[in-house]
Write a structure and sequence with these properties.
Elements lengths: L2 H26 L13 H16 L1 H4 L3 E2 L12 E2 L5 H13 L4 H23 L6 H10 L1 H6 L5 H17 L6 H9 L8 H12 L6 H29 L10 H9 L8 H16 L1 H13 L12 H19 L1 H4 L10 H12 L4 H28 L2 H11 L5 E4 L5 H8 L3 E3 H6 L2 H10 L7 E6 L5 H11 L5 E9 L8 E8 L1 H5 L5 H4 L14 H15 L9 E5 L7 E3 L2 E6 L1 H6 L2 E4 L4 H8 L6 E7 L2 E8 L4
Parallel strand pairs: 3-4, 3-5, 8-10, 8-11
Antiparallel strand pairs: 1-2, 5-7, 6-7, 9-10, 11-13, 12-13
Helix pairs in contact: 1-6, 1-18, 2-4, 4-5, 5-6, 5-8, 6-17, 6-18, 8-9, 9-11, 10-11, 13-14, 14-17, 15-17, 19-20, 22-26
Length: about 625
């Protein structure tokens, strides 16, 4: 196609895809955050809650920190999130304040505007280069990743917009003036800082045959700017939390190292490549992916023509560099964050358009139309799956069936993190209890202060197969009290269907002692080997850990608590209280000491001369209990 043909036809292609995309977004923009796999909504839900907490508590109280608590809590019991800068959630809080709404459409508004602004910047980058800006924008907008994740309340849409702005200004001749914008972009999210090494690489490449000093000086300035941006975030964390420590009390550096480890391992090369290939196919469609690769290795975007490439080629390579750096540095995280491929999207659009410009009119036109229809169809299916989950209806059922004090566990129902946003009270995913190590699930319930409250697992009867029901009753939760309740939610979320009925189980006894469940005691579902069971010592440790969580609210935040179980372990911080397992040392160290009735440690505590232990009442999964407590004299 000639440039004139590409421009004329590209305009009509873009107008059609733009109208269809805007219609898709308008139809689904108020859909609840509910998707679990593939462009998952958990992060959007979490960011929305943090933004709402800024309004709930006020910026004077939060100091811009990211507060994760679902229910109203005192500052000493706030659960903090510091893995990302706070800017996105602060801006979202501003949108919620200005619109007066807490609905999903208001939480998606900022990402929508950022995605539209990215379109304009892509058009500006492609002008005067032989590429049709209309074709570039069409390809970018037709990507399933843009059509789906471009509307999510996540870091990528805003960070991508900022990165495009930096590249655009760099191509317009900005050099030193970019530094404050790069620093500010790092406070949106860290991937913006990948532009720092990219600009340094370009400067060093262009310095060939000339003096290296200016390029080296600029590269050092870029590095210092990136470090200053990260340091600004850390200073904000230190200011809001009273020091550089994570919420569980470990040092910030230990926290960073643990975060970098993700799930404690790096994926095998084959597994990583397989996951990324699947993500690329789902995010960009096969035609656009092939066009971009052809352009990269045989067309005007060739990788090794950096210095003499036209402006769009260099811009495309900038995002190929940033996207690749992100997923390669954090491979374990990239295995479960398909939307990280958002940073490749400008490369796909620019490189794909560059190769289309070399093709005859008919095949180029066909590929544009085909890839656009394919992308819209793929994105529409994702939105329909998301909208089919009856989050609002099920949340109404939960309000009718349960007191707000009850902690719920969702099985075969909408994800708990989606439901609790509407319920306003805890709903956890019982699927994690059945598929992941029990200690992790116990820690989540206990560290949030939920373990003392009644625990109920609910299952929709319509989706409960007979084999599942039999396993629940006999293997997973044997001997548990079971009731059936009737709600108003429609089965499958469709109008005209019968109201949903629910089976409800009392999960409390199993959280306090997993030994009651043959399934939870079975390690073979998690570890190699057959027939492995938790040893009595391992079971005892989990029981004692549950009991440590139960005593937290007996004491004021800041209290150091020793729980007597004979194990000398390092203290951990939960809900602002320090608690550790102890034995002989705890008895002689002073401070608050706690022992469970009926244990040898309780008897030793009571028998000590001069120690006046007192039996104090607590709640254990909604049922009354008591523990022995020794409080030192003030």
């Amino acid at each position: 196609m000639t440039e004139e043909q590409a421009g004329r036809q590209g305009f009509w292609f873009f107008l059609c895809i733009c109208l269809l995309s805007l219609g898709l977004w308008a139809h689904f923009i108020d859909t609840p955050f509910s998707r679990v796999f593939g462009f998952a909504d958990y992060i959007s839900n979490e960011n929305g809650r943090i933004a709402e907490n800024h309004l709930r508590y006020g910026l004077a109280a939060t100091k811009g920190d990211q507060i994760r608590n679902l229910e109203l809590a005192q500052p000493a019991e706030w659960v903090h999130y510091n893995n990302h800068p706070a800017t996105l959630d602060l801006l979202t809080a501003g949108v919620l304040y200005l619109t007066g709404s807490r609905d999903p459409w208001a939480k998606r508004l900022l990402s929508l505007l950022a995605s539209l602004a990215s379109l304009v910047l892509l058009a500006a980058l492609s002008r005067g280069s032989g590429l049709s800006p209309w074709v570039v924008m069409t390809l970018f907008l037709a990507l399933p990743l843009t059509l789906v994740h471009g509307l999510n309340l996540s870091y990528e849409p805003l960070a991508l917009f900022w990165m495009l702005g930096l590249v655009f200004l760099a191509e317009r001749g900005w050099v030193w003036r970019l530094l404050p914008l790069l620093w500010l972009g790092g406070l949106i999210d860290y991937p913006v800082l990948y532009m720092g090494p990219w600009f340094a690489l370009v400067a060093l490449w262009e310095a060939r045959g000339r003096s290296w000093r200016p390029a080296l000086l600029y590269s050092c300035a870029l590095a210092l700017t990136c470090l200053a941006s990260v340091a600004t975030h850390l200073l904000h964390v230190a200011w809001t939390m009273g020091g550089l420590q994570a919420d569980s009390g470990q040092s910030w550096w230990d926290h960073i190292l643990r975060s970098l480890q993700s799930r404690g391992h790096e994926p095998a090369v084959a597994s990583f490549l397989q996951s990324q290939l699947g993500f690329f196919m789902a995010s960009f469609t096969l035609p656009i992916l092939i066009l971009a690769l052809l352009s990269l290795f045989s067309g005007p975007m060739r990788l090794f023509h950096l210095a003499r490439s036209p402006r769009p080629s260099r811009a495309a390579l900038a995002f190929l560099f940033a996207g690749s750096l992100h997923v390669l540095l954090f491979r374990a995280h990239a295995m479960v964050h398909d939307f990280w491929l958002a940073y490749y999207a400008p490369f796909m659009a620019l490189a794909g358009a560059a190769f289309l410009a070399r093709l005859p009119t008919a095949p180029a036109r066909f590929l544009i139309v085909f890839s656009s229809i394919l992308g819209l169809g793929m994105a529409s299916r994702v939105w329909q799956e998301r909208a089919a989950v009856p989050v609002r209806a099920v949340a109404r059922d939960l309000d009718l069936m349960f007191d707000e004090r009850v902690v719920l566990h969702s099985l075969l129902a909408p994800p708990g993190w989606a439901l609790e946003s509407y319920r306003g009270h805890p709903v956890l995913d019982a699927g994690d209890l059945l598929q992941q190590p029990f200690p992790a699930y116990l820690d989540r319930v206990g560290s949030l202060g939920y373990l003392g409250r009644p625990q109920r697992l609910f299952v929709p009867i319509a989706d409960l197969k007979e084999s599942w029901a039999r396993d629940l009753d006999r293997v997973i939760l044997p001997g548990v009290s079971l009731v059936e309740k009737k709600g108003v939610a429609r089965s499958g979320g469709k109008a005209g269907q019968a109201a949903q009925a629910w089976r409800v189980y009392d999960l409390g006894p199993f959280l306090l002692d997993p030994g009651r469940s043959p399934y939870l005691m079975d390690k073979s579902r998690l570890l190699p080997g057959n027939g492995q069971k938790l040893s009595e010592g391992e079971r005892r440790r989990l029981v004692d850990r549950a009991r440590k969580f139960l005593v937290l609210r007996l004491f004021a935040p800041g209290t150091s608590i020793a729980y007597l179980d004979g194990r000398e372990e390092e203290p951990e911080k939960f809900l602002g209280r320090w608690v550790r397992s102890g034995g002989e040392k705890a008895l002689s160290a002073g401070g608050v000491v706690v022992a469970w009735p009926g244990t040898v440690w309780a008897e030793r505590l009571r028998a000590l001369r001069g120690v006046e232990a007192k039996l104090e009442p607590i709640q254990a999964a909604g049922k009354p209990a008591a523990v022995w407590v020794w409080r030192p004299q003030s």
